[in-house]
From TrEMBL:
Residues where ATP binds: 3-7, 132-140
Cited PANTHER family: 5-FORMYLTETRAHYDROFOLATE CYCLO-LIGASE, ATPASE INHIBITOR/5-FORMYLTETRAHYDROFOLATE CYCLO-LIGASE
Cofactors, names only: Mg(2+)
Enzymatic class: ligase
UniProt entry tagged with the keyword Cytoplasm: no
Source species: Psychroflexus maritimus
Protein name: 5-formyltetrahydrofolate cyclo-ligase
Length: 191
């Protein structure tokens, strides 16, 4: 299937999830992350969930990262040029929900994308080759192109892989892993 069709299907599937199912599946995804070979890394980029989009609740993953004394980096989006700035999440970080429902840091210590070791990515769908289908604005593809070559890219999904995203583009940055409540998919093992 093509990205536009997959976006429509998976937005609908997510809209049907109840808060208790989102919580259960999000906890399972966070627990599965413990099996990944990432825990020797230091700097982790985490998206903060858009509640009205029924995204994976990353608070459980955040608790694991903080419990392991990892540096957690979060983003602030600029919709005028589809760029993102990245900030270290600390106890002093004030979060504000923007007009699109995205929790973002109001201020803080800015972090260069080159310093980030692991990126957890939001997505609507993905395929067996690690191609990710997001909301279509390209924020994360641009961000990932600014990261170091060996950054680990980990998708989080409530649903299993599609066979193929037919219109995946060469500029789309593929995932290294994708965690679902049922399993961990492994793709590009050059890291």
């Amino acid at each position: 299937m093509k990205k536009q069709e997959l976006r429509k299907i998976y937005k609908q599937k997510r809209s049907e999830l109840t808060p208790s199912i989102i919580e259960e599946k999000s906890i399972s995804i966070a627990n599965k992350s413990l099996a990944l070979p990432i825990w020797q890394k230091e700097n982790f980029h985490l998206f903060l969930s858009i509640e009205h989009q029924n995204e994976v609740d990353t608070n459980y993953l955040l608790h694991i990262l903080q419990g392991r004394d990892k540096n957690v980096v979060i983003s602030k989006s600029d919709f005028s040029d589809t760029s993102m700035k990245h900030f270290l999440l600390t106890d002093a970080t004030k979060l504000v929900v923007n007009q699109w429902g995205i929790p973002e840091p109001e201020n803080g210590f800015e972090v260069s994308p080159k310093q980030i070791d692991v990126v957890f990515l939001p997505l609507l769908a993905f395929d067996l080759k690690g191609n990710r289908v997001g909301y279509g604005k390209g924020f994360y593809d641009r961000f990932l192109s600014e990261c170091k070559n060996k950054v680990m890219k980990i998708g989080l999904s409530f649903f299993e892989a599609e066979e193929v995203v037919e219109d995946a583009h060469y500029s789309d940055v593929p995932l290294d892993y994708c965690i679902t409540p049922q399993e961990i998919y492994t793709f590009n093992q050059e890291n």
